[in-house]
Amino acid sequence: MKKQLSTLLPVLDRRLTGLLPLLFAALLAGCAIIAPYDETTDRRIAELSLQTETALAEGDAGELSPAEKSDFLHKAIGTVRAIRSRSELYAKNQKETDALKLLEEQYRDLASRPLRTSIASGVRLTLLNVQQIQISKKRSATFSDGLQKKNKD
Amino acid sequence: MPIDYHNLLETILDRSATAALGHASDLKTYIAARAKLIAESVILIERDRLNGDISEDDARFAYEQIKKSEKSALLALQATRQAAAQDAINAALNVAATVLGKAIGIAL
Questions:
Q1: For chain B, what is the domain count?
Q2: Any CB–CB contact under 8 A between B85 and chain A?
Q3: CB contact under 8 A, B44 and A118
Q4: Averaged pLDDT, B1-28
């Protein structure tokens, strides 16, 4: 175990700099420092990402009329607002809601531009960032479930 | 048998580090995906501009949007770090509860 520990600690130190203040802050705050994983939010973001990639592929192929583009953007903005409303119901979810605010802004910015993959790079990157937040929450939820199961056994 | 401090500390550190390392692995995947997407975007902006599908102003806009998304990248990194910290804490508390529970014979 000593060997494993000596291997793990430098890696942890390098990759997760600043972890210790957070650990202390969390201990003081009663351990929950991030909102719980929400499967519905995760699924809706994945769906929005799929719809966005589809619309962009149509735009790249010149198969998206101005009306279809406008329709897509309205639906995307509506979806982001709905996800954000749900996200705001959870405490300690500020990072996710802030990222969603930015995503809405970036969809709105696209209104006056040709809808192409190149132009929507920012939206695609922010979608990826929001998905990363879901991945980290899901890992935490799985980890907590594992601990609880282990304690029951 | 009394609790061995050094053994307990090592176990807590080991479990905490293992818990946090799962997130480090996710982070590596995320950073690679992000780098790939940025590189792909640069190629697409160049291609669309050279083909005349977008204007010079559109190309500038696309680049500004990539820069703008850095805000949400920072939020994603912070959220991942918090999740790693939370798992490390829970792992440590779990070890503490198990060891103490066994030592003094109570369920914690």
A1: 1
A2: yes
A3: yes
A4: 93
Q: Please answer yes or no on whether A8 and B22 come within 8 Å at the CB atom.
A: no
One domain for residues A17 and A81: no
Same-domain pairing of A54 and A9: no
How confident is the model over A17-63, as pLDDT tens digits?
455 445 544 454 446 789 999 999 999 999 999 999 999 999 999 99
The reported pLDDT for the residue numbered A17 is 46
Do A134 and A94 belong together in one domain?
Answer: yes
A36 interaction partners in chain B (CB closer than 8 Å): none
Q: Do both A44 and A89 map to the same domain?
A: yes
Domain count, chain A: 2
Same domain, A99 and A121: yes
Å from A4 to nearest chain B CA?
8
Residue A16 has pLDDT above 90, yes or no: no
Cβ–Cβ < 8 Å for A59, A118: no
Domain holding A73, by residue range, is 35-152
Chain A CB contacts of B26 under 8 Å are: 132, 135-136, 139
Half-sphere exposure for A103 (CA within 13 Å, toward CB): 31
The range of the structural domain enclosing residue B43 comes to 26-102
Q: What number is the ipTM of this complex?
A: 0.91
What mean pLDDT comes out for the span A62-72? 97
Q: Which residues of B touch A23 (CB under 8 A)?
A: 85, 88-89
Alpha carbon of A83: minimum distance to chain B alpha carbons (Å)? 16
